[in-house]
Amino acid sequence: MSGDMVITMGEGTCGIAAGAPEVTKLLKERFPEATFKAVGCIGMCHLEVMVEIATGGKSWLWGNVNKKNLPKIVRFHRGQGDLPEAMLIRSSDTRETERSQYLTRQTRIALRNVGELNPTSMEQFRARDGYSAIEKVIKGGMTPEQVIDEVRIAAIRGRGGAGFPTAVKWGFARGAQGEPKYLVCNGDEGDPGAFMDRSLLEGDPHSVIEGMLIAAYAIGASKGYAYIRAEYPLALKHFAIAMDDARKAGFLGHNILGSNFSFDIKIKEGAGAFVCGEETALLASIEGQRGMPRIRPPFPAIQGVFSKPTIINNVETLANIPWILKNGGAAYARIGTEKSRGTKVFALAGAIKRGGLVEVPMGMTIRQVLEEIGGGSASGRPLKAVQLGGPSGGCIPESLFDTIIDYDAINATGAIMGSGGMVVMDSKSCMVDLARFFLEFTQIESCGKCTFCRIGTLRMKELLTKICDGSGTLEDIATLEELAERVKDASLCGLGQTAPNPVLTTLKYFREEYLAHVTDKRCPGGVCKGLITHTILQDKCTGCSICDRYCPVNAITGELKKPNTWVIDQKICINCGMCVEVCNPDAILAA
Amino acid sequence: MSKASLEATVDPEKVQGWITKIGSDTSAAVPLLQAIQSEYGYLPRKAMNLVLEGTEINASQLFGVATFYAQFRLDPVGRHMIKVCHGTACHVQGADRLNTSLRHALGIENPKEDTASNGSYTIENVACIGCCSLAPVMLIDGEAFPNLKGADAQRHLVKHAKSKGEILPGQTGEGDDQSADEKEK
Ligand SMILES: Cc1cc2nc3c(=O)[nH]c(=O)nc-3n(C[C@H](O)[C@H](O)[C@H](O)COP(=O)(O)O)c2cc1C
Ligand code: SF4
Ligand code: SF4
Ligand code: SF4
Ligand code: FES
Ligand code: FES
């Protein structure tokens, strides 16, 4: 009966990390006649390993499959067992489930193919109309100006963070003097908590290549670079395969589709520097130098890689382009709000029940994203904020969750749209610690060129560390605010200019948490190690000794199997929290 | 095996091969260092010197680049590499505890050290590896382990060490696997 069976496996980075290869192996043993398909990230990363089984005209999508529960679906598909409800995400028979709502509430344009096709199959890409937009452009005889006009009508703004209108930028480079011109795809994705571009590059590389082709055609570029960070091995691999296949099919190289347009791409592997996402730093890095930003003007559109006119576009921006050319700019512009058209992809993570990749129309509220798609809090504790835009962004408190997703509406809160990282915090997280985390990040990543960015962020980090340790003063908060303004004003590039945002927004919305650390010497989220103590609740302790074995500093002593003998030596304890994690009866209190 | 013997033996022909393949102009600096690092796990001094001799890249550029990018390291590494993600999602979900418990198992006490005294494992912190919905995450020799608590990280390490015949110089919570598993449920 498994002759017509098609088994589709999610084999994106999360799928593999969650154990997809093992599940695939076991399924192949159980259903040797079935056809297996591997697809990219569907975006429901919290439900990985995901398996879709289609047979007899019906299909079932199973989530959280592992070695232990696999036999349940095997029995079901052999007609020997009941339907394992708990593992079902959706089937062709059921109406929408709470879980499938995760997908149905989205509008997938940039992600239109991700999770739907085998990322390295040219055939499947073509079957989903892939490369039809570039064919329309070239064979339909569109001029570069007409292409730019279509993108202008779509009114798409760059998705890499700054939100600059794509058509305007292309217009600059179109008019610039100098040969050859370059088109660079920015896949550095430095925001440490975001993976939109990773999913696109590894799950649908051909769409990014097609977007690059159209952009190159529009600005008159003959050379391209795909700058992809080294931390994404699967993205690098899939992109390289896709490039080879595109070249074989005549979409890259000389005289594309018989026209006089020639374009080819080289991959540049990023080497782990956040600042290289900034466009002028990225150019220096491509040239083999330290990735240090430079003053603009000259803008890269006039003087970029090797001093030639260069356009740098983000991966997600580029992935939208073929859709826009195929369906028309007007169709794209109908989605979204007045000043922010189209959709935006977010990477939802943190204290949320259903984390993963989501693409929503602009204009949806943050609350809708968190509740209707994300399913609300993972722990059941109330949510208190989301952090948007990573180290350059800020937090939005629960009281402002009705803010809509729109460049201007989000800017008004003090946060930024950013590239799409959305990290959710619940009541057990500490906003001061979060600000410290980001400042530590930007301080390390600062290229060192500007004094305020180099040293100002270091002083800010020191002040925040002091506050987290419990030795901060009210004066420190004032100094922090003053430094924040100076670092903003006296920095050359976006890294320094935005580095204070996480501090400023947490101070704006969660000042009381700062005050609790400073005046009450208390961390309300129970996170800051200097402000909590670990103690054993004698009435709960069974004397099992596990905590002792995991404590890295041997702070715990007691007699095996004897309750009421176990104590933590506060002088030795470093408040790492290991003991809380391993104690079965929850006998250790961190407060 | 002690740490001193972790120094790699550099084959000059290999380095020359990369130069021939990748190029010898200044824009080849990053990819050349990447090739060296992926072979040896770090940048041996001898290989750097060979690049200086065989290309247009000068010492200031080469060492400038090698010290600028987080990917590159100048110190030898252990036989196996553990990368602990410290991106935002992993940080807010307790990535610190993975380091605490791994270092405890590896007996690395000095905060400045990152390699076990017997040269078995090196721990590195990395920025987001792109599966934030499964945070916290670590990689051992490239294999990812999702949704970890500190104790889980240690258990995976113990298993890995057993399968590779490595000895863990530190202390582990071994022996209580079962009860810790139960807590998970
Ligand atoms: C510190 C810093 C880091 C950045 N990182 C990225 C990045 O990882 N990816 C990206 O596309 N843009 C990044 N940007 C924005 C780019 O400079 C640039 O605006 C963008 O790639 C342009 O593409 P777009 O117009 O399609 O958005 C960063 C900017 C700064 C200042
Ligand atoms: S603001 Fe910071 S990262 Fe940007 S150029 Fe100045 S020092 Fe470098
Ligand atoms: S918090 Fe850490 S250091 Fe303190 S007793 Fe528990 S395990 Fe030991
Ligand atoms: S792990 Fe918990 S129950 Fe066991 S000895 Fe420690 S405190 Fe007591
Ligand atoms: S990688 Fe599979 S859903 Fe994200
Ligand atoms: S923050 Fe750890 S995987 Fe993204």
Low-confidence stretches of chain B: 176-185
Number of strands of chain B: 4
Number of domains of chain A: 5
What is the number of E strands of chain A? 18
| Overall pLDDT level of chain B | 91
Strand residues, percent of chain B:
5-15%
Helix and strand sequence of chain B: HHHHEHHEEEHH
Question: Structural class of the secondary elements of chain A?
Answer: alpha/beta
The percent range for helix content of chain B is 40-55%
- Biggest sheet of chain B, strands in spatial order? 2-1-3-4
CATH architecture level-2 label of the largest domain in chain A: 3-Layer(aba) Sandwich
What's the CATH superfamily of the largest domain in chain B, by name?
Glutaredoxin
Number of helices of chain A: 24
Structural Rg of chain B: 19 Å
Count of spatially separate domains of chain B? 2
Describe the protein.
The complex is a heterodimer of chains A (591) and B (185). Chain A has 591 residues and is of the alpha/beta class. Chain A has 24 helices and 18 strands. A 5-stranded mixed β-sheet of chain A has the order 2-1-3-4-5, with helices on one face. In chain A, strands 11-10-14-12-13 form a 5-stranded mixed β-sheet. A 4-stranded parallel β-sheet of chain A has the order 8-7-6-9, sandwiched between helices. In chain A, a hairpin with a 2-residue loop joins strand 3 and strand 4. In chain A, helix 7 packs antiparallel against helix 8 and helix 7 packs across helix 10. The radius of gyration of chain A is 26 Å and the shape is globular. The mean pLDDT of chain A is 95. By secondary structure, chain B is α+β, with helices and mostly antiparallel strands. Chain B folds into 2 domains: 62 residues; 86 residues, Glutaredoxin (3-Layer(aba) Sandwich). Helices cover 45% and strands 10% of the residues of chain B. Chain B has a 4-stranded mixed β-sheet, covered by helices on one side. Chain B is elongated. The C terminus of chain B is likely disordered. Bound molecules: flavin mononucleotide, iron/sulfur cluster (3 copies) and FE2/S2 (inorganic) cluster (2 copies). One FE2/S2 (inorganic) cluster binds next to helix 1 of chain A. One iron/sulfur cluster binds next to helix 23 of chain A.
